[in-house]
Amino acid sequence: MDKSVFPESARGQAQRGFTLVELLVALAIAGVLSVAILAAMAFGVGRDTQQGQIAQMNEQARAALALITRDVQSAGFLATSTQGNCTVSYAYDRQQSPTYVQQAPISAASQSAASNLPLQSTPPAYPAATQSPYLAQSILMLSAPAASTFFSQSAAPIYVTQFGTTQSGNGQGSVSSTQLPVSTLMLNSVSGIQPGDMMQVQVPMNGGVACFRAPVCSVTAQGAGSSYIDSKSCPMGRQYMPSNGYKDYAAQVPSAMGTLTNSNMLHAKLVDLGQANNTLQYTQYWLSQQSPYTTPTLMRSVYSALTDQMTSSQAIAPGVQSLQILFGTVPAGSTVGSTAPTWKSWGDMLPTDTVVSVDVALVLRTLQDDPSYTAPSQITIAQPATGLSSPDAFLPVPTSGLQHRHFAVYMMQIAMRNTLWNP
User: Fold this and answer.
1) Using H for helix, E for strand and C for coil, what is the string for the chain?
2) Which residue ranges make up each domain of the chain?
3) Global pTM?
């Protein structure tokens, strides 16, 4: 072959590779592309994480509202069998703080990081002292869990017949005395009543019926019209009966109902609630930031309404920044449905108000920061009616320190299904 056809210079050019400069340029371009691809992937992963948190928050909020709705609609279930005539109803427990609990079908209390909620022995550690207590409220509901447990006992009507003048040297408890009975009541019958039972004493007054929880320490049956129960002479009595008995209970009754006297006590009706912890129960929703919870968490706790002891407690949803409640009320005697409700916080309720509905608002936040998002300085909650103002309105929720969290508001207006009642 004639080598002159392919000169050496041509063969060298054909076999030559990339120059160093070309390689460096190619590597630089590849690096830039790789960084862009990785950034896009990281953004996508981060966005998926945030979307996952938001989806989880929505799911937890829906589940929480469904549970709250069920319990609010059950408030007063069969409790009206004992409290249907009660304008106000109170229970005393020396070991609780506060010691008196109003046994309404549903009530509310503002939370404070340093103060106990009803039925609880330790503060909830939320919200901070610098925040309004109205941002976090607890809901307390009273109901019977099932008809079978409530009607497990039956007895003839029991009522107070008279007061014996031998209860103390000053005739304490007699109709003519100014001293209300401390512990002993004379009844028409003690049939079915056992020591250890819990009773409800329903006392007619000028402005309605005042009801009081009272323990049964001892039962003395001496025939019709001369039988007694005592509510102080046992450890149970010392815990669940006020020191001065019905005199201390009388101090809790609103002045609009008049003054409780022995004349009122005469013919007061007694209902034997028995001893089973599940006869009547409280259900309480509240926000906790106690260990092990590092974020405010919606809790659901259940208590016996006879002994105030907690029977169960579970976390429902983390990241609940605010729980607020307003009560829809109409004047007593109004035709329900024909009068637009007036919305009030629990602290502004009046004995003449009839509760017809409850508006619950939950404000949730995601549990991790989203650097690409900045939340507004406060989260506004839609009001159930126009013209509302604090404290009878939903308060805006500040986002200080949580500017890179996503927030959402979830609301539910719930009609009182089992009972319409006066606070």
Assistant:
1) CCHHHCCHHHHHHHHCCCCHHHHHHHHHHHHHHHHHHHHHHHHHHHHHHHHHHHHHHHHHHHHHHHHHHHHHHHCCCCCHHHHCCCCEEEEECCCCCCCEEECCCEEEEECECCECCCCCCCCCCCCCCCCCHHHEEEEEEEECCCHHHHCCCCCCCEEECCCCCCCCCCCCCCCCCCCCCCCEEEECCCCCCCCCCEEEEEEEECCEEEEEEEECCEEECCCCCCEEEECCCCHHHHHHCCCCCHHHHHCCCCHHHCCCCHHHHCCCEEEEEECCCCCCEEEEEEEECCCCCCCCEEEEEEEECCCCCEEEEEEEEECEEEEEEEEEEEECCCCCCCCCCEEECHHHCCCCEEEEEEEEEEEEECCCCCCCCCCCCEECCCCCCCCCCCCCCCCCEECCCCCCCCEEEEEEEEECCCCCECC
2) 52-85+134-143+280-415, 153-274
3) 0.79
